[in-house]
């Protein structure tokens, strides 16, 4: 088991502008509000869909969820599977608090669930 201190992490303010963002939240959370250019693969589907990451640009994959717990687990699993992954500390709650853009798939006002 990987301890939380061993999981690479980055704060929202330090995310590279061109970084690849992987959102591992559930479909209803994604529909309500997400980062505009994020890729969505729910945590439970990640093992069966991890191959989709091969189509993304080179470099680390920045993994985000609501507050950082699920994304930390996904980051640990991805790194153990040979990927270069970094957990986004504070998740989408911090993303929203930092005033970063959030879009909705529902057409309504975006919100972070």
TrEMBL record:
Any Pfam family hit: Rhodanese
GO molecular function term, any single one: transferase activity
InterPro entries: GlpE_sulfurtransferase, Rhodanese-like_dom, Rhodanese-like_dom_sf
Keyword Transferase: yes
PROSITE patterns reported for this sequence: RHODANESE_3
Domain of life: Bacteria
Alphabetically ordered keywords of this record: Transferase
Rhodanese domain mapped to chain residues: 15-104
Coiled-coil features, chain-numbered ranges: none
Keyword Oxidoreductase: no
PANTHER family membership: FAD-DEPENDENT OXIDOREDUCTASE (PTHR43031), PYRIDINE NUCLEOTIDE-DISULPHIDE OXIDOREDUCTASE (PTHR43031:SF1)
Protein name: Rhodanese-related sulfurtransferase
UniProt source species: Amycolatopsis xylanica
Lineage: Bacteria, Bacillati, Actinomycetota, Actinomycetes, Pseudonocardiales
